[in-house]
Amino acid sequence: KSEGRGMFRFFEPDMSARIQARRELELDLRQALGAGEFHLVFQPQVRAATEVLTGFETLLRWTHPARGAVSPAEFIPLAEETGLILPIGEWVLRGACMEAARWPDPIKVAVNLSPVQFKNRSLVAMVVNALAASGLPPHRLELEITEAVLLQKDDVTIAMLHELRALGIRISMDDFGVGYSSLSYLRSFPFDKIKIDRSFIADLDRNKDNAAIVRAMADLGTSLRIETTAEGVETPEQLAIVRACGCTEIQGYLISPPKPAADALDLIARLYRKAVAA
Ligand code: C2E
Ligand code: MG
Ligand code: MG
Ligand code: MG
Questions:
Q1: What is the ipTM of this complex?
Q2: Sign of CA dihedral 185, 187, 189, 195
Q3: So which residues are the signal peptide here (predicted)?
C-alpha cells in the first residue's frame, strides 16, 4: 500500500495467477490417486558403523500428466489442507506394508504420517488393517512424525501414539532439532528413534563446530537408549563425522537416493544379504 496504487496493480494479476495455478493443482490432486499418478520410492537406512541395511523410508512421488514430477514439499501441504492426505496417506501405508512384507524379516519400513491423519479417529484402525492386509508384523513398521503432530499437546494424539506403540509399532521423531521445542516433545512421548534433520548434517562440511550439536543429539539418543539417524548424509566426510558423533544409523544420497520398489530388492541383496553372509 505504501508503494502506491501502481504497485498494487502490478502485483494483483501475479497473485491471482498463483491462486489460479494452486486451484488447478488441487483439482489435479483430487483425481491423482484414482488416475494412478502416485508411486512409492524407498530410501535405505543403514547402521552407521557397518553400513548394514536396517530398513527403508517410504517417500511418495506424484507424476503429474502435464507438469511431470511434483515435489512432496509442494503437494503434501495441499493434500493436508484439502483432507486428501487421508485417502492418500492410507494408500501410502498400505503400499508400504505390502512391499515390506516381501522383504527379509529384520528389514523395517518407515512411513511418514501427517498431523492431519491424527485428527482422524480411525487412524489406529487404519494402521491395524494395513498390517493385517499385508501380513507385515508390527515390529517391522516405523511411523515417522514431526513435532507438528504434538504441537497442540493433544491428549487424543498422545493416546493414539501409545496405542500404536503398544501394538509393537515403532515411532520416530522426524526432522529433529529444527522445530521450536524438540526437546520438550521428547518428554511427551517415548520415541524409539530420533532422526536428526538434514540441515545439521549439511552444515557439518561448512562449520566443524556443528559437529558439537550433532554429537549432543546423538548423546541424547544414547542416554534415552534410542536410535539416532543422521538424515541427508551425502559425503564420506559427513559419514565420518556422524560416526564419530555416535549416530547409530544413517540415511542419505551417499548410501542411495530413494528408489522404486524393484530396486529396493536389489539394495537388500547388496546392503543386507551380502553383509549377513559375510
Ligand atoms: P522427510 O520425511 O524428512 O524425508 C526426507 C527427505 O530428504 C526426502 O525428500 C528425501 O528424498 C530427502 N533426502 C534423503 N537423503 C537426502 C540427501 O542425502 N540429500 C538431500 N538433499 N535430500 C535427501 P522428499 O522425498 O522430497 O520428501 C520431502 C518431505 O515430504 C518428507 O521429508 C516428508 O515430510 C514429506 N513426505 C514425503 N512422502 C510423504 C508421505 O508419504 N506422507 C507424508 N505425510 N509426508 C511425506
Ligand atoms: Mg521422514
Ligand atoms: Mg526428515
Ligand atoms: Mg521433512
A1: 0.98
A2: positive
A3: none
